[in-house]
């Protein structure tokens, strides 16, 4: 049966203009009508006769009234007779009635007396019933005539529109329309014309002319959307901060903050806990930003139309608000007006239809009744967007592999079948789909069904600050809150989520106002306890009529929180983030009580209603559910001694057994969280351990009837965590354990490594596994190290790279050159390139002996769809034609983003170079090349240095064919020269450095090894002429006890297990790198690297002084200090061949 046949009667008209008016009027006519209405108002006030009640222009009406073509007075008198057969019930003088009855005033043909008749006609109110019956008959004869004329006229226009040669479309119908004076009048016209079209559509379908009906419907695409837009505007124009019951609605356009949608990634799964994802995501990385209004528009470089968009984002990031703003902008006609229909669905509402049968058309009718009222049964020929919000909340069995193919939108089936066929493109392939989801559920949609994956990213640091500045009018208060958040890494991470910014603002505002000198919460547990207490205070004051100073906790409040905690824990174990009435019943929660909780604790627990009042419950954010779940476990153990984390729950009552059981509770919680593959218990664990602190239990005084945990228990938990950190854990698990130590107020490991980093005494050779984990944690917490990661700052070794691989994955730029890497490193880096969450844009592997095998292994990762790498440097890696072939094959067959490739100082041969010439690269470097560059190590860049004797200080003696320099006390050895260092014992070499250069020296007692611009000052004892104490030079200071690097008076202490009297220098002038090494048994051990941009030619230099001594004394003292040193021993530098 045709689905539209039940809409024969009683269908409300839609509000969209159907076609143009069937009568035309001029501006002059409208002006005269306005004057007549004004005169009519005066008549009613006793200034003249009242307006007539019936139009007398049609032939039909003229039969029932006297001839009015006489003088006005006689006409008026004739109407005063009781037996005058004039209709008395309907006024046609208003604009609305003129439209309704199709009255046409042709003022050019109308006499003055006729106009007066129409304006002055009065109907006595004391007619007999017989007269009234005759009047009613005449009115309905007139009504029938006018309706028939109107409908006939509209049907003619409809026929014209359906004719093959008609192409002007709907808008041409309004060329001669009257400009209406009010929105109500325009709305009534639309309703009348909509009604006619619906009648026509109905009878066409009854006549089995469905194709013609569909074609007619496609000619009027805005017939229904006008009413749909009106409904959506009312629904979406306001939002509630918190929950609807919590307060007054706020205009969405007023509070909406632009959210960034970035393009990238695929629809593959990311199972990490969302806090992990936020912590490791670099918010300011270069990405393609897409405006919401351009979501389905084809961007430059994309040839395929976009049908389905999958938007990912963690909980609370603003996905739902984004879809609402997209829909509201369309409904308010601000954007996307080429789209005829937008149907926003949520999986929460679709879930309740799991057992019901619908066709696609019926499903749309079910949620958007305007389409049913308009008789719309087909969407093939219109632009339509389906929005499905919250895929992660879907409880429908979406099966994309074994589902029946359905192409008929009128065929009734299950809702999950409709969705799978719609997403696969079997149903309405012309439709656009927008699906939002949390990352963990993204893999439910096959990648082949998704044309573009986007991500809603959290607040950047600037957006966080803007949020708090907007949230508080008191700028001093806002600044204090922003400064406090910066002190805590946990709070910084969480504040990427807009919902957490709101929680933080709520808490800190209360703490700062009520306790001016109170300690601000620094840990997540402290923050959420304060948040809970604030909500309890609100309940006490708002609902119970209590005072600010009253005890917040009441038996009723305790019961509410205990029930919500039980629900949170049980549903967290099942992985449920939204709950229906059946879920509440399973958790032994009374449904009526749940409604009360959602009405009282509005900022914690939400009750939402779907289209047909189906109740859906959830916590305001996943972290709130995890907090309450941990609180429930803690309360249960403290109150009853039961460990809910054990499979067989056992109660512990005596004090000794209970103390041991409490330690076991926290240790088992740590172990259970570490067993989780995706870290879904990470935040739960942090909260649970946080509750063990006495300070946090004090904050919950009133909820906790007794306290538990002692310092010994906490210390045992800390030691257990440190023991776990010594095991071979993933970086993500190690990082969460450090957050757990933070919740337990233990910072010893991190502070130890931080102190070593600050002092420059960090020796990675001696780091324990736990200390390596601490270093990873510190580096991942540093915005600077996440931007550029230089492995040589920590250890130029393969072992260090493998330990710090999570930092490489998160960094934008990884500098790994000259780090003694091998094929093993290539395998690890290939995996990094394959990670969906990798941020890596630039990778420098130059001067590592990777050889052809290493490049082949690395190439497998370079072919990944997730690859974001734009710059790759493999210069000096001993690569031959075989390695070039592997690289060319991968890059030519993948959708690589690579723009710059450096393969210089290798030996590709002519054939190898030709393989790469066809790649679409902005920069390709293969020169210099040749067999000479296949020598391992840096010594292949060795150069011969020649000392410039015109620069040598007078107290320096040259020997061994000017290969050795010794400082002596004697009569000056050299004449004056403009280039000579006249104060400090220094010299420069004659030839400037080009390309890559390497040299070694042997030194005795004290030496300063430098490279310098020629413009360094030569005269006087100021720091401007000392190597390393200005912007003209860089140097390594060598003493018998330590090394230090210097530039612009800034000292970098270098940790080294021993000091060697032989050092090496490597300079890559174009790359801007200067590296110093100590040479031990012919092995290079990295000391320090400067990364800069060299703007002038460089010259090697040597000196015999310690910059630290120079900075510590005034010029006269400096000179005397150097002289005193020379009395005891002599320094020397020898250039090694």
Question: What shape does the CA trace take?
Answer: globular
Number of helices: 41
Top CATH class of the largest domain: Alpha Beta
CATH architect. name of the largest domain? 3-Layer(aba) Sandwich
Low-confidence segments, ≥5 residues, pLDDT <50?
1-123, 168-180, 240-248, 265-271, 282-286, 1124-1129
Give the N-terminus to C-terminus distance in angstroms: 98 Å
**Largest sheet: number of strands, sense, barrel closure:** 7 strands, mixed
Enumerate the strands of the largest sheet in spatial order, edge to edge or round the barrel. 4-3-11-5-10-8-6
**Average residue pLDDT:** 76
Given the helix and strand composition, which structural class is it? alpha/beta
Descriptive account of the structure:
Its main location: cytoplasm. This is B30.2/SPRY domain-containing protein. GO terms for molecular function: ATP binding. With 1137 residues, the protein is α/β, with parallel strands linked by helices. The chain folds into five domains: 193 residues, no CATH class; 226 residues, Rossmann fold (3-Layer(aba) Sandwich), CATH 3.40.50.300; 198 residues, no CATH class; 139 residues, Alpha-Beta Horseshoe (Leucine-rich repeat, LRR (right-handed beta-alpha superhelix)), CATH 3.80.10; 197 residues, Jelly Rolls. Helix content is 41%, strand content 13%. The strands form seven sheets. Strands 4-3-11-5-10-8-6 form a seven-stranded mixed β-sheet. The chain has a seven-stranded antiparallel β-sheet with strand order 21-22-33-24-29-30-31, with no helix packed on it. It has a six-stranded parallel β-sheet with strand order 15-16-17-18-19-20. Strand 30 and strand 31 form a beta hairpin. Helix 20 crosses helix 21, helix 26 packs parallel to helix 29 and helix 31 packs across helix 32. It is globular and about 145 Å long. It starts with 26 loop residues before the first helix and ends with a strand. The N terminus is likely disordered.
């Amino acid at each position: 049966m045709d689905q539209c046949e039940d809409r024969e009667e009683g269908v409300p008209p839609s509000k969209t203009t159907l076609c143009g008016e069937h009568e035309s009027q001029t501006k002059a006519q409208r002006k005269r009508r306005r004057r007549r209405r004004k005169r009519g108002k005066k008549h009613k006030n006793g200034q003249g006769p009242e307006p007539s009640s019936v139009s007398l222009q049609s032939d039909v009406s003229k039969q029932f009234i006297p001839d009015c073509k006489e003088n006005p007075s006689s006409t008026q008198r004739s109407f005063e007779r009781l037996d005058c057969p004039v209709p008395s019930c309907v006024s046609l003088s208003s604009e609305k009635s003129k439209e309704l009855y199709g009255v046409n005033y042709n003022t050019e043909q109308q006499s003055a007396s006729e106009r007066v008749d129409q304006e002055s006609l009065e109907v006595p109110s004391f007619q007999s019933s017989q007269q009234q019956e005759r009047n009613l008959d005449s009115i309905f004869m007139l009504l029938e005539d006018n309706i028939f004329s109107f409908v006939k006229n509209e049907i003619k226009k409809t026929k014209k529109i359906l004719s093959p040669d008609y192409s002007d479309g709907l808008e041409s119908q309004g060329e001669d329309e009257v400009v209406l004076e009010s929105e109500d009048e325009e709305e009534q016209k639309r309703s009348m014309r909509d009604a006619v079209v619906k009648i026509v559509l109905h009878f066409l379908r009854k006549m089995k002319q469905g194709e013609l009906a569909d074609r007619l419907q496609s000619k009027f695409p805005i017939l229904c959307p006008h009413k749909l837009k009106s409904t959506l505007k009312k629904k979406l124009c306001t939002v509630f901060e918190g929950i609807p019951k919590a307060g007054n609605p706020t205009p969405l356009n007023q509070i909406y903050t632009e959210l960034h949608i970035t393009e990238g990634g695929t629809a593959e799964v990311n199972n990490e806990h969302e806090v992990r994802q936020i912590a490791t995501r670099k918010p300011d990385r270069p990405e393609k930003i897409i405006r919401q209004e351009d979501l389905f528009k084809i961007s430059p470089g994309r040839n395929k139309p976009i049908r389905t968009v999958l938007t990912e984002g963690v909980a609370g990031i603003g996905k739902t608000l984004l879809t609402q703003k997209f829909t509201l902008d369309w409904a308010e006609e601000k954007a996307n007006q080429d789209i005829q229909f937008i149907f926003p669905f949520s999986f929460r509402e679709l879930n309740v239809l799991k057992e019901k049968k619908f066709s696609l058309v019926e499903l749309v009718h079910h949620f958007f009744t305007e389409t049913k009222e308009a008789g719309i049964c087909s969407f093939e020929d219109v632009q339509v967007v389906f929005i499905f919000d919250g895929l992660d909340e879907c409880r429908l069995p979406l099966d994309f592999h074994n589902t029946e193919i359905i192409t008929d939108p009128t065929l009734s089936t299950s809702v999950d079948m409709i969705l799978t066929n719609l997403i696969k493109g079997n149903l309405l392939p012309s439709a656009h789909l927008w699906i939002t989801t949390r990352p963990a559920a993204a893999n439910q949609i096959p990648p082949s069904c998704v044309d573009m994956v986007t991500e809603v990213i959290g607040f950047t640091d600037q957006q966080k600050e803007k949020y708090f500045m907007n949230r508080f009018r008191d700028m001093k208060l806002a600044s204090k809150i922003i400064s406090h958040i910066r002190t805590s890494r946990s709070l910084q991470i969480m504040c990427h989520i807009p919902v957490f910014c709101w929680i933080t603002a709520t808490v800190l505002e209360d703490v700062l106002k009520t306790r001016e000198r109170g300690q601000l919460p620094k840990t997540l547990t402290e923050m959420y306890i304060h948040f809970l207490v604030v909500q309890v205070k609100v309940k006490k004051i708002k609902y119970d009529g209590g005072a600010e100073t009253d005890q917040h906790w009441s038996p009723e409040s305790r019961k509410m929180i205990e029930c919500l905690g039980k629900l949170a824990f049980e549903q967290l174990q099942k992985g449920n983030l939204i709950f229906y009435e059946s879920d509440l019943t399973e958790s032994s929660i009374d449904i009526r009580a749940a409604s009360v909780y959602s009405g009282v604790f509005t900022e914690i627990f939400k009750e939402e209603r779907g289209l047909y009042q189906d109740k859906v419950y959830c916590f305001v954010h996943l972290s709130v559910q995890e907090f309450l779940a941990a609180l429930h476990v803690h309360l249960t153990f403290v109150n009853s001694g039961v460990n809910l984390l054990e499979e067989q729950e056992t109660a512990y009552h005596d004090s000794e057994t209970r103390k041991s059981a409490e330690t076991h509770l926290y240790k088992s919680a740590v172990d259970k969280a570490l067993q989780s593959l995706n870290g879904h218990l990470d935040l739960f664990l942090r909260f649970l351990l946080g509750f063990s602190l006495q300070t946090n239990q004090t904050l919950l005084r009133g909820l906790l009837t007794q306290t538990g945990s002692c310092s010994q228990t906490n210390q045992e938990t800390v030691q257990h965590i440190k023991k776990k950190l010594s095991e071979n854990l993933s970086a993500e698990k190690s990082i969460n354990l450090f957050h757990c130590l933070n919740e337990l107020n233990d910072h010893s490991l991190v502070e130890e490594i931080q102190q070593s980093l600050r002092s420059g005494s960090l020796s990675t050779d001696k780091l324990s596994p736990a200390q390596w984990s601490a270093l990873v944690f510190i580096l991942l917490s540093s915005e600077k190290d996440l931007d550029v990661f230089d492995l040589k700052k920590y250890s130029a070794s393969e072992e260090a790279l493998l330990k710090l691989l999570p930092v490489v994955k998160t960094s934008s730029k990884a500098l790994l050159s000259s780090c003694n890497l091998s094929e093993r490193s290539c395998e690890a880096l290939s995996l990094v390139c394959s990670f969906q969450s990798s941020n890596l844009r630039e990778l420098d592997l130059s001067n590592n002996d990777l050889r052809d095998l290493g490049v082949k292994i690395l190439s497998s990762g370079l072919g990944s769809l997730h690859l974001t790498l734009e710059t790759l440097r493999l210069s000096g890696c001993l690569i031959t034609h075989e390695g070039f072939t592997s690289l060319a094959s991968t890059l030519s067959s993948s959708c690589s983003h690579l723009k710059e490739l450096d393969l210089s100082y290798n030996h590709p041969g002519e054939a190898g170079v030709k393989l790469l010439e066809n790649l679409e690269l902005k920069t390709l470097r293969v020169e210099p090349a040749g067999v000479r560059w296949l020598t391992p190590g840096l010594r292949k860049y060795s150069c011969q240095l020649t000392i410039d004797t015109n620069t040598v200080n007078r107290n320096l003696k040259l020997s061994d064919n000017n290969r050795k320099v010794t400082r002596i006390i004697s009569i000056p050895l050299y004449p004056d020269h403009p280039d000579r260092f006249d104060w400090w014992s220094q010299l420069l070499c004659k030839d400037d450095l080009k390309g890559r250069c390497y040299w070694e020296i042997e030194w005795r007692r004290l030496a300063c090894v430098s490279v310098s611009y020629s413009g360094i000052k030569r005269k006087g004892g100021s720091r401007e002429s000392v190597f390393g104490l200005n912007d003209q030079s860089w140097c390594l200071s060598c003493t018998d006890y330590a090394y230090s690097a210097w530039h612009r008076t800034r000292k970098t202490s270098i940790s080294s297990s021993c000091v060697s009297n032989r050092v090496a220098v490597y300079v890559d002038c174009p790359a801007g790198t200067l590296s110093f090494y100590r040479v031990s048994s012919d092995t290079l051990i990295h000391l320090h690297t400067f990364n800069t941009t060299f703007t002038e030619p460089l010259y090697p230099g040597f000196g015999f002084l310690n910059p630290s001594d120079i900075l510590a004394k005034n010029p006269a003292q400096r000179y005397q200090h150097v002289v005193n040193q020379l009395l005891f021993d002599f320094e020397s530098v020898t250039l090694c061949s």
